[in-house]
UniProtKB/TrEMBL annotation:
Its EC number is 2.7.1.6. Gene3D superfamilies: 3.30.230.10, GHMP kinase, C-terminal domain (3.30.70.890). It comes from Flavobacterium cheonanense. The gene is galK. InterPro entries: Galactokinase, Galactokinase_CS, GalKase_N, GHMP_kinase_C_dom, GHMP_kinase_C_sf, GHMP_kinase_N_dom, GHMP_knse_ATP-bd_CS, Mevalonate/galactokinase. This is Galactokinase.
Length: 389
Protein backbone atom coordinates (compact mmCIF):
# COMPACT_ATOMS: atom_id res chain seq x y z
CA UNK A 1 0.00 0.00 0.00
CA UNK A 2 2.91 2.34 0.81
CA UNK A 3 4.60 1.39 -2.48
CA UNK A 4 1.41 2.06 -4.42
CA UNK A 5 0.96 5.46 -2.74
CA UNK A 6 4.53 6.44 -3.62
CA UNK A 7 4.14 5.21 -7.18
CA UNK A 8 0.85 7.00 -7.73
CA UNK A 9 2.09 10.26 -6.23
CA UNK A 10 5.28 10.10 -8.25
CA UNK A 11 3.44 9.36 -11.51
CA UNK A 12 1.04 12.20 -10.86
CA UNK A 13 4.01 14.52 -10.39
CA UNK A 14 5.44 13.43 -13.75
CA UNK A 15 2.08 14.00 -15.43
CA UNK A 16 1.72 17.43 -13.81
CA UNK A 17 5.28 18.71 -14.31
CA UNK A 18 6.73 16.60 -17.19
CA UNK A 19 9.65 15.54 -14.98
CA UNK A 20 10.36 12.96 -12.31
CA UNK A 21 10.25 14.38 -8.77
CA UNK A 22 13.69 14.97 -7.29
CA UNK A 23 12.53 14.00 -3.79
CA UNK A 24 9.83 11.87 -2.16
CA UNK A 25 8.87 12.26 1.51
CA UNK A 26 6.59 10.20 3.72
CA UNK A 27 4.90 11.72 6.75
CA UNK A 28 2.77 9.47 8.97
CA UNK A 29 -0.49 9.86 10.84
CA UNK A 30 -0.57 8.88 14.51
CA UNK A 31 -2.42 7.04 17.24
CA UNK A 32 -2.40 7.59 20.98
CA UNK A 33 -2.25 4.38 23.03
CA UNK A 34 -3.37 6.02 26.27
CA UNK A 35 -3.27 9.40 28.04
CA UNK A 36 -6.32 11.34 26.93
CA UNK A 37 -7.20 14.87 28.08
CA UNK A 38 -4.09 14.94 30.25
CA UNK A 39 -1.88 16.95 27.87
CA UNK A 40 -3.24 20.18 29.37
CA UNK A 41 -3.25 18.67 32.87
CA UNK A 42 0.48 18.05 33.25
CA UNK A 43 0.24 14.41 32.38
CA UNK A 44 1.94 12.36 29.69
CA UNK A 45 0.60 11.10 26.40
CA UNK A 46 1.70 7.87 24.69
CA UNK A 47 1.43 8.39 20.93
CA UNK A 48 3.08 6.60 18.01
CA UNK A 49 3.37 7.18 14.27
CA UNK A 50 1.49 4.66 12.10
CA UNK A 51 1.87 3.06 8.69
CA UNK A 52 -0.48 5.50 7.00
CA UNK A 53 1.24 8.37 5.25
CA UNK A 54 1.04 11.61 3.42
CA UNK A 55 3.38 11.19 0.44
CA UNK A 56 4.98 14.33 -1.00
CA UNK A 57 6.73 14.34 -4.39
CA UNK A 58 8.65 17.56 -4.77
CA UNK A 59 11.32 19.34 -6.83
CA UNK A 60 12.88 22.74 -6.16
CA UNK A 61 12.45 25.59 -8.65
CA UNK A 62 15.07 28.12 -9.62
CA UNK A 63 12.77 30.98 -8.60
CA UNK A 64 10.26 31.85 -5.86
CA UNK A 65 7.20 30.39 -7.60
CA UNK A 66 5.32 27.46 -6.04
CA UNK A 67 2.77 25.05 -7.46
CA UNK A 68 1.16 22.42 -5.24
CA UNK A 69 -1.21 19.70 -6.42
CA UNK A 70 -3.50 18.06 -3.85
CA UNK A 71 -3.99 14.83 -5.80
CA UNK A 72 -6.71 13.36 -3.56
CA UNK A 73 -8.85 16.49 -3.94
CA UNK A 74 -7.89 17.08 -7.55
CA UNK A 75 -6.98 20.69 -6.78
CA UNK A 76 -4.02 22.89 -7.67
CA UNK A 77 -2.76 25.98 -5.89
CA UNK A 78 -0.13 28.40 -7.21
CA UNK A 79 1.57 31.33 -5.50
CA UNK A 80 4.79 33.29 -5.32
CA UNK A 81 6.82 33.43 -2.10
CA UNK A 82 7.69 37.06 -2.89
CA UNK A 83 4.01 37.89 -2.21
CA UNK A 84 2.54 38.21 1.27
CA UNK A 85 1.08 34.90 2.40
CA UNK A 86 -2.41 35.03 3.90
CA UNK A 87 -4.91 32.31 4.85
CA UNK A 88 -6.98 31.22 1.88
CA UNK A 89 -10.49 29.83 1.54
CA UNK A 90 -8.99 26.72 -0.07
CA UNK A 91 -8.63 25.03 3.30
CA UNK A 92 -5.91 22.47 2.60
CA UNK A 93 -3.38 25.00 1.34
CA UNK A 94 -3.43 26.82 4.70
CA UNK A 95 -1.61 23.95 6.41
CA UNK A 96 1.26 24.48 3.97
CA UNK A 97 1.09 28.28 3.71
CA UNK A 98 1.28 28.45 7.50
CA UNK A 99 4.50 26.43 7.41
CA UNK A 100 5.96 28.64 4.67
CA UNK A 101 5.07 31.80 6.59
CA UNK A 102 7.09 30.46 9.56
CA UNK A 103 10.01 29.75 7.29
CA UNK A 104 9.81 33.21 5.74
CA UNK A 105 9.94 34.75 9.21
CA UNK A 106 12.61 32.48 10.64
CA UNK A 107 14.80 31.80 7.61
CA UNK A 108 13.92 34.44 4.99
CA UNK A 109 12.72 31.50 2.94
CA UNK A 110 12.01 32.24 -0.73
CA UNK A 111 12.77 28.94 -2.53
CA UNK A 112 10.05 28.01 -4.97
CA UNK A 113 9.08 24.39 -5.69
CA UNK A 114 6.64 22.12 -7.49
CA UNK A 115 4.89 19.46 -5.42
CA UNK A 116 2.21 16.79 -5.57
CA UNK A 117 0.88 15.18 -2.41
CA UNK A 118 -1.47 12.30 -1.74
CA UNK A 119 -2.32 10.40 1.43
CA UNK A 120 -3.46 7.15 2.97
CA UNK A 121 -4.22 8.83 6.32
CA UNK A 122 -8.01 9.10 6.50
CA UNK A 123 -9.05 12.75 6.68
CA UNK A 124 -10.85 13.92 9.80
CA UNK A 125 -10.88 10.55 11.60
CA UNK A 126 -8.58 11.63 14.40
CA UNK A 127 -5.41 10.10 12.96
CA UNK A 128 -4.07 13.57 12.34
CA UNK A 129 -3.84 13.83 8.60
CA UNK A 130 -3.34 17.57 9.15
CA UNK A 131 -0.15 17.16 11.19
CA UNK A 132 1.11 14.67 8.61
CA UNK A 133 0.62 17.27 5.86
CA UNK A 134 2.17 20.23 7.67
CA UNK A 135 5.09 18.28 9.16
CA UNK A 136 5.72 16.47 5.88
CA UNK A 137 6.11 19.75 4.03
CA UNK A 138 8.16 21.40 6.80
CA UNK A 139 10.46 18.36 6.87
CA UNK A 140 10.76 18.39 3.08
CA UNK A 141 11.66 22.11 2.87
CA UNK A 142 14.20 21.65 5.66
CA UNK A 143 15.86 18.76 3.84
CA UNK A 144 15.81 20.10 0.28
CA UNK A 145 16.88 23.63 1.14
CA UNK A 146 19.20 22.69 4.05
CA UNK A 147 17.50 25.02 6.53
CA UNK A 148 19.12 23.43 9.57
CA UNK A 149 15.91 22.96 11.58
CA UNK A 150 15.78 20.36 14.34
CA UNK A 151 12.96 17.81 14.47
CA UNK A 152 11.52 19.66 17.45
CA UNK A 153 11.51 22.91 15.48
CA UNK A 154 9.75 21.15 12.58
CA UNK A 155 7.01 19.87 14.92
CA UNK A 156 6.57 23.34 16.45
CA UNK A 157 6.36 24.96 13.00
CA UNK A 158 3.61 22.48 12.09
CA UNK A 159 1.68 23.30 15.25
CA UNK A 160 2.05 27.05 14.74
CA UNK A 161 0.84 26.71 11.18
CA UNK A 162 -2.45 25.27 12.50
CA UNK A 163 -2.72 28.00 15.12
CA UNK A 164 -2.07 30.87 12.71
CA UNK A 165 -3.31 29.85 9.25
CA UNK A 166 -5.91 27.16 10.02
CA UNK A 167 -7.33 28.55 13.25
CA UNK A 168 -7.15 25.32 15.22
CA UNK A 169 -5.60 25.74 18.64
CA UNK A 170 -4.08 22.25 18.76
CA UNK A 171 -1.54 20.85 21.22
CA UNK A 172 1.83 19.49 20.13
CA UNK A 173 1.20 15.72 20.38
CA UNK A 174 0.15 15.14 16.76
CA UNK A 175 3.08 16.93 15.17
CA UNK A 176 5.53 15.47 17.65
CA UNK A 177 4.38 11.90 17.02
CA UNK A 178 4.45 12.34 13.25
CA UNK A 179 8.01 13.70 13.23
CA UNK A 180 9.55 11.68 16.10
CA UNK A 181 7.85 8.34 15.45
CA UNK A 182 9.97 5.18 15.50
CA UNK A 183 9.12 1.67 14.36
CA UNK A 184 7.70 -0.43 17.22
CA UNK A 185 8.19 2.34 19.78
CA UNK A 186 5.71 4.52 21.60
CA UNK A 187 6.68 8.00 22.70
CA UNK A 188 6.03 9.00 26.30
CA UNK A 189 5.73 12.73 25.89
CA UNK A 190 5.31 15.60 28.30
CA UNK A 191 3.42 18.07 26.14
CA UNK A 192 4.46 21.03 28.28
CA UNK A 193 8.22 20.59 28.34
CA UNK A 194 8.54 18.36 25.24
CA UNK A 195 10.62 15.96 27.32
CA UNK A 196 10.15 12.51 25.81
CA UNK A 197 11.24 8.89 26.06
CA UNK A 198 10.81 5.99 23.65
CA UNK A 199 9.40 2.74 24.99
CA UNK A 200 9.15 -0.69 23.46
CA UNK A 201 5.87 -1.43 21.70
CA UNK A 202 6.15 -4.91 20.25
CA UNK A 203 2.61 -6.24 20.31
CA UNK A 204 3.61 -9.83 19.43
CA UNK A 205 0.43 -11.82 18.78
CA UNK A 206 -1.80 -8.78 19.13
CA UNK A 207 -2.56 -5.92 16.81
CA UNK A 208 -4.07 -2.47 16.97
CA UNK A 209 -7.40 -2.05 15.25
CA UNK A 210 -9.18 1.27 14.87
CA UNK A 211 -12.94 1.37 14.45
CA UNK A 212 -14.09 4.65 12.98
CA UNK A 213 -17.48 5.72 14.33
CA UNK A 214 -17.87 8.03 11.34
CA UNK A 215 -19.48 10.65 13.57
CA UNK A 216 -18.26 14.01 14.77
CA UNK A 217 -20.55 15.74 17.24
CA UNK A 218 -20.25 19.46 17.57
CA UNK A 219 -19.62 19.77 21.34
CA UNK A 220 -15.90 19.23 20.85
CA UNK A 221 -14.91 22.87 21.31
CA UNK A 222 -17.43 23.77 24.01
CA UNK A 223 -16.84 20.49 25.85
CA UNK A 224 -13.11 21.11 25.75
CA UNK A 225 -13.39 24.62 27.17
CA UNK A 226 -15.76 23.47 29.94
CA UNK A 227 -13.39 20.67 30.94
CA UNK A 228 -10.46 23.06 31.10
CA UNK A 229 -12.38 25.37 33.43
CA UNK A 230 -13.59 22.52 35.64
CA UNK A 231 -10.15 21.01 36.19
CA UNK A 232 -8.62 24.42 36.79
CA UNK A 233 -11.22 25.08 39.46
CA UNK A 234 -10.57 21.66 40.98
CA UNK A 235 -6.82 22.05 41.06
CA UNK A 236 -7.12 25.42 42.83
CA UNK A 237 -9.19 23.79 45.60
CA UNK A 238 -6.78 20.85 45.90
CA UNK A 239 -3.78 23.21 46.14
CA UNK A 240 -5.46 25.26 48.86
CA UNK A 241 -5.62 22.13 51.06
CA UNK A 242 -2.39 20.47 49.97
CA UNK A 243 0.27 23.14 49.37
CA UNK A 244 2.74 20.45 48.27
CA UNK A 245 0.64 19.89 45.13
CA UNK A 246 1.93 21.93 42.20
CA UNK A 247 0.15 20.14 39.35
CA UNK A 248 -2.07 17.09 38.87
CA UNK A 249 1.10 15.09 38.47
CA UNK A 250 1.82 15.19 42.21
CA UNK A 251 -1.77 14.93 43.31
CA UNK A 252 -2.99 11.57 44.62
CA UNK A 253 -6.34 9.81 44.42
CA UNK A 254 -6.56 10.00 48.24
CA UNK A 255 -6.28 13.80 48.14
CA UNK A 256 -9.06 14.09 45.58
CA UNK A 257 -11.23 11.66 47.53
CA UNK A 258 -10.67 13.57 50.77
CA UNK A 259 -12.04 16.71 49.10
CA UNK A 260 -15.00 15.06 47.39
CA UNK A 261 -17.62 17.23 49.12
CA UNK A 262 -15.87 20.52 48.61
CA UNK A 263 -15.09 19.80 44.96
CA UNK A 264 -18.69 18.94 44.25
CA UNK A 265 -19.85 16.03 42.12
CA UNK A 266 -18.84 17.28 38.66
CA UNK A 267 -15.45 18.76 39.48
CA UNK A 268 -14.64 15.73 41.65
CA UNK A 269 -15.29 13.38 38.73
CA UNK A 270 -13.13 15.43 36.37
CA UNK A 271 -10.21 15.60 38.82
CA UNK A 272 -10.49 11.94 39.74
CA UNK A 273 -10.26 11.01 36.06
CA UNK A 274 -7.17 13.16 35.50
CA UNK A 275 -5.28 11.74 38.49
CA UNK A 276 -6.10 8.15 37.49
CA UNK A 277 -5.31 8.73 33.81
CA UNK A 278 -1.87 10.14 34.60
CA UNK A 279 -1.19 6.98 36.62
CA UNK A 280 -2.57 4.76 33.85
CA UNK A 281 -0.08 6.12 31.31
CA UNK A 282 2.76 5.10 33.59
CA UNK A 283 1.17 1.69 34.16
CA UNK A 284 0.70 1.25 30.41
CA UNK A 285 4.40 1.90 29.82
CA UNK A 286 5.22 -0.80 32.39
CA UNK A 287 2.75 -3.18 30.78
CA UNK A 288 4.27 -2.61 27.33
CA UNK A 289 7.82 -3.01 28.60
CA UNK A 290 6.81 -6.33 30.17
CA UNK A 291 4.65 -7.44 27.23
CA UNK A 292 1.73 -7.72 29.64
CA UNK A 293 -1.01 -7.17 27.08
CA UNK A 294 -3.88 -8.22 29.32
CA UNK A 295 -2.92 -5.44 31.69
CA UNK A 296 -2.55 -2.95 28.86
CA UNK A 297 -5.96 -3.85 27.49
CA UNK A 298 -7.53 -3.45 30.93
CA UNK A 299 -5.97 -0.03 31.30
CA UNK A 300 -7.33 1.06 27.91
CA UNK A 301 -10.83 -0.05 28.84
CA UNK A 302 -10.57 1.73 32.21
CA UNK A 303 -9.55 4.87 30.36
CA UNK A 304 -12.66 4.60 28.25
CA UNK A 305 -14.92 4.20 31.28
CA UNK A 306 -13.26 7.26 32.82
CA UNK A 307 -13.63 9.35 29.67
CA UNK A 308 -17.24 8.28 29.33
CA UNK A 309 -18.51 8.39 32.93
CA UNK A 310 -16.19 10.80 34.72
CA UNK A 311 -14.81 13.18 32.10
CA UNK A 312 -17.96 12.85 29.96
CA UNK A 313 -16.42 13.38 26.54
CA UNK A 314 -17.62 10.19 24.85
CA UNK A 315 -20.84 9.74 22.87
CA UNK A 316 -23.38 6.95 22.27
CA UNK A 317 -21.60 5.71 19.15
CA UNK A 318 -18.18 5.40 20.83
CA UNK A 319 -19.67 3.84 23.97
CA UNK A 320 -21.43 1.35 21.76
CA UNK A 321 -18.22 0.42 19.92
CA UNK A 322 -16.36 -0.13 23.20
CA UNK A 323 -19.23 -2.03 24.85
CA UNK A 324 -19.71 -4.19 21.75
CA UNK A 325 -16.21 -5.67 22.05
CA UNK A 326 -16.20 -5.97 25.85
CA UNK A 327 -17.15 -9.65 25.83
CA UNK A 328 -15.14 -10.67 22.80
CA UNK A 329 -12.35 -12.99 23.93
CA UNK A 330 -10.19 -11.81 21.02
CA UNK A 331 -10.24 -8.22 22.30
CA UNK A 332 -8.06 -7.34 25.29
CA UNK A 333 -9.16 -3.74 25.59
CA UNK A 334 -10.73 -0.80 23.81
CA UNK A 335 -11.24 2.89 24.27
CA UNK A 336 -12.21 6.02 22.43
CA UNK A 337 -9.17 7.82 21.08
CA UNK A 338 -8.72 11.58 20.82
CA UNK A 339 -10.66 14.55 22.17
CA UNK A 340 -13.98 12.72 22.08
CA UNK A 341 -17.56 13.18 20.82
CA UNK A 342 -16.63 11.12 17.75
CA UNK A 343 -13.69 9.70 15.84
CA UNK A 344 -12.23 6.23 16.34
CA UNK A 345 -12.00 3.63 19.05
CA UNK A 346 -8.63 1.92 19.43
CA UNK A 347 -8.75 -1.82 20.12
CA UNK A 348 -6.07 -4.26 21.21
CA UNK A 349 -7.03 -7.49 19.45
CA UNK A 350 -5.64 -10.93 18.74
CA UNK A 351 -3.96 -11.09 15.34
CA UNK A 352 -6.10 -12.96 12.84
CA UNK A 353 -9.38 -12.15 14.57
CA UNK A 354 -9.79 -8.73 12.94
CA UNK A 355 -11.86 -9.66 9.90
CA UNK A 356 -14.52 -11.59 11.79
CA UNK A 357 -14.67 -8.92 14.49
CA UNK A 358 -15.07 -6.08 11.99
CA UNK A 359 -17.89 -7.92 10.21
CA UNK A 360 -19.74 -8.59 13.46
CA UNK A 361 -19.39 -5.09 14.93
CA UNK A 362 -20.13 -3.40 11.58
CA UNK A 363 -23.46 -5.24 11.31
CA UNK A 364 -24.41 -4.32 14.89
CA UNK A 365 -23.35 -0.71 14.41
CA UNK A 366 -25.29 -0.36 11.19
CA UNK A 367 -28.44 -1.79 12.68
CA UNK A 368 -28.19 0.44 15.78
CA UNK A 369 -27.14 3.76 14.21
CA UNK A 370 -27.61 3.28 10.47
CA UNK A 371 -23.97 4.23 9.93
CA UNK A 372 -21.28 2.28 8.07
CA UNK A 373 -18.27 1.53 10.23
CA UNK A 374 -14.81 2.04 8.81
CA UNK A 375 -11.82 0.18 10.21
CA UNK A 376 -8.05 0.52 10.03
CA UNK A 377 -5.46 -2.02 11.06
CA UNK A 378 -2.38 -0.04 12.00
CA UNK A 379 1.25 -0.76 12.74
CA UNK A 380 3.65 1.46 14.63
CA UNK A 381 6.09 2.92 12.16
CA UNK A 382 8.84 5.44 11.76
CA UNK A 383 8.32 9.19 11.64
CA UNK A 384 8.61 11.64 8.76
CA UNK A 385 11.44 10.73 6.42
CA UNK A 386 12.74 11.00 2.90
CA UNK A 387 12.03 7.95 0.78
CA UNK A 388 14.99 6.74 -1.25
CA UNK A 389 14.56 4.18 -3.98
P1 LIG B 1 -7.42 15.10 11.10
O1 LIG B 1 -7.96 14.47 12.36
O2 LIG B 1 -7.36 14.09 10.00
O3 LIG B 1 -6.13 15.81 11.33
P2 LIG B 1 -8.29 17.76 10.54
O4 LIG B 1 -9.64 18.33 10.33
O5 LIG B 1 -7.43 18.30 11.61
O6 LIG B 1 -8.50 16.18 10.68
O7 LIG B 1 -7.45 17.91 9.21
C1 LIG B 1 -7.98 17.53 7.96
C2 LIG B 1 -7.68 18.58 6.91
O8 LIG B 1 -6.28 18.49 6.52
C3 LIG B 1 -8.45 18.37 5.62
O9 LIG B 1 -9.72 18.96 5.69
C4 LIG B 1 -7.54 19.04 4.60
O10 LIG B 1 -7.70 20.44 4.62
C5 LIG B 1 -6.16 18.70 5.12
N1 LIG B 1 -5.72 17.43 4.49
C6 LIG B 1 -5.46 16.28 5.13
N2 LIG B 1 -5.13 15.30 4.24
C7 LIG B 1 -5.22 15.85 3.01
C8 LIG B 1 -5.04 15.36 1.69
N3 LIG B 1 -4.71 14.09 1.46
N4 LIG B 1 -5.21 16.22 0.66
C9 LIG B 1 -5.55 17.50 0.88
N5 LIG B 1 -5.75 18.01 2.11
C10 LIG B 1 -5.59 17.22 3.17
MG1 LIG C 1 -5.86 17.49 12.68
Amino acid sequence: MKKKLIQNTSEHFEKSFQNKPEHIFLSPGRINIIGEHVDYNDGFVLPAAINKYVCIAISPNKNSKCKIVAKDLNEVFEFDLKDTLVPNQTMWINYILGVLQQLKEQKQFDNGFNAVFSSSVPIGSGLSSSAAVECGFAYAFNKIFALGLTKEEIALIGQKSEHTFVGVNCGIMDQFASVFGKKDKVIKLDCNTLAYEYHKADFKKYSLLLLDSNVKHTHLTSGYNDRRNEVEQGLAIIKSHFPEVKTFRNCTEEMVNALKNELGEIVYKRCHFVVKEIQRVQDAVDALENSDFNRLGNLMTKTHRGLSKEYEVSCDELDFLVDAVANETSVLGARMMGGGFGGCSINLVEKGSEKELIEKISAQYRSKFGIDLKSYKVKISKGTSEYKN
